[in-house]
């Protein structure tokens, strides 16, 4: 995915990760690439990658395991609650 430099970067990164989750490229319980790897992949700053993941966390798509990283949330569990 190519980032449109004329638009804010973090929403674009978040949208691409969301798409990958919804398409099954990242599965429930799977650890996501770290912020350094995401920043390198999308050619953005690490803080931009962190902000994108924070948005996905707020949306309930990912969760954090302290000291381990970000993981894809199991959305079927939240749908049952």
UniProtKB/TrEMBL annotation:
InterPro entries in the cross-refs: Bact_HTH_transcr_reg, Tscrpt_reg_HTH_GntR, WH-like_DNA-bd_sf, WH_DNA-bd_sf
Keyword Transcription regulation applies: yes
Annotated keywords: DNA-binding, Transcription, Transcription regulation
Domain of life: Bacteria
A Pfam short name: GntR
SMART domains membership: HTH_GNTR
PROSITE patterns tied to this protein: HTH_GNTR
Every HTH gntR-type domain range: 7-75
Protein name as catalogued: Winged helix-turn-helix domain-containing protein
UniProt organism field: Streptomyces desertarenae
